[in-house]
Design brief:
Blueprint lengths: L12 E5 L3 H4 L1 H15 L3 E5 L5 H11 L4 E6 L1 H12 L10 E6 L5 H5 L6 H10 L2 E13 L2 E7 L2 E5 H14 L7 H10 L5 E7 L2 E13 L3 E2 L3 E2 L11 E7 L3 H6 L1 H4 L10 E6 L2 E4 L6 E4 L2 E20 L6
Parallel strand pairs: 1-2, 1-3, 3-4
Antiparallel strand pairs: 5-6, 5-16, 7-9, 7-15, 8-9, 8-14, 9-12, 10-11, 12-13, 14-16, 15-16
Helix pairs in contact: 2-6, 3-4, 7-8
Length: 320
């Protein structure tokens, strides 16, 4: 694939294109997207990612070259890497940047919150229209191979069962074996594999202990391809929304499945919700893992904080 890299205008859009997004759908769709971009008159350059975390490197290089407007052409993971790069540098204030998304992934959960269309032409029109929203950004510290690491996120971080499903799905994506039904298949399969773990939770100095099936920390509301696991989250209120599904029987969980998509499951007695600025999840269980914005990361303990109203995004509207 031909790549273009011309660093000049700070008002030009720089597109980070993930050719593996959408189960490699972008490989056949990119030429069509380019025609739509030309039709729109959008001024842009682009580059393709080649591996995991490559979008971070490419974004950092583009920032050094003067770019301030970025678009992720891919899924939530590509968008996450782009934003992580912006918040991993200290030379340029984060509010000097604008970021947008042309969704090609299978989840599009951040886009669902902000009415970003799956249709390419309409998504490009959203960028041209330029409606801005400044949202909060999350930060999490975690462990991987004995090393303490840091990751920024813009949507939802999931632990426990959620992370297991994401891990299975991501492995299939890497092998080129994923499809539109992979997440649902892995969700059902993981129900028979995952066992709840005892964890300690601290929300702004308030302490709890739960036998935990899944735990989410959210800035936005949707994950897992449309599940509303943080149904009351407001992305610019400076707070993280916490949802804990405690140990629950498979029958009771199955009965709540439809309520995971409308947010009503939080009324169940086995569900705890909270809200705060600083979250500590203490666990040493290696099977109680972390994913952020669909990207599989590592193990605990996990420390979460929030950077309020720090990211300037281009949106189609508000679904909250």
């Amino acid at each position: 694939m031909k790549q273009e890299f011309e660093i000049s205008k700070t008002d030009r859009w720089y597109m980070i294109v993930n050719p593996n997004a959408g189960n490699r759908k972008i490989r056949k769709d990119w030429n069509n997207i380019r025609k739509l971009l030309a039709k729109s008159g959008l001024d842009y350059d682009f580059v393709f990612t080649e591996r995991a975390m490559h979008a971070v490197e490419l974004t950092q290089k583009a920032i050094e070259g003067g770019y301030r407007n970025f678009v992720a052409v891919g899924g939530d993971g590509t968008f996450n890497e782009l934003v992580h790069a912006i918040f991993s540098q200290n030379e340029v204030p984060t509010l000097d940047f604008k970021v947008g998304l042309i969704p090609v992934g299978t989840g599009n959960d951040w886009g669902r919150m902000f009415k970003i269309p799956d249709n390419y032409e309409k998504a490009i029109q959203v960028i041209n229209d330029g409606q801005e929203f400044i949202q909060d950004v999350g930060v999490v510290f975690y462990q991987n191979n004995g090393e303490k690491l840091k990751r920024h996120f813009i949507n939802i971080a999931g632990m426990g069962f959620d992370a297991l499903v994401a891990q299975k799905t991501n492995k299939q994506k890497e092998a080129g074996k994923a499809n539109a039904f992979s997440y649902i298949f892995n969700l059902i399969a993981s129900l028979f594999e995952y066992s709840p773990k005892l964890i300690d939770l601290e929300i702004d100095d308030k302490k709890y202990s739960f036998n935990t099936f899944s735990l989410t920390v959210g800035i936005c509301r949707y994950n897992g391809g449309g599940m509303m696991q943080s149904p009351k989250a407001i992305p610019d209120d400076g707070l993280l929304d916490v949802t804990v599904i405690k140990k629950i029987g498979l029958g009771a969980l199955a009965a709540q499945l439809k309520n995971l998509y409308n947010g009503r499951f939080i009324a169940h007695p086995k569900v705890f919700t909270g809200r705060g600025k600083d979250i500590l999840v203490w666990t040493t269980h290696e099977s109680f893992k972390l994913e952020t914005d669909g990207e599989s990361l590592g193990i605990g303990p996990f420390t979460f904080s929030i950077i309020p109203v720090a990211l300037r995004t281009i949106i189609g509207g508000k679904n909250f």
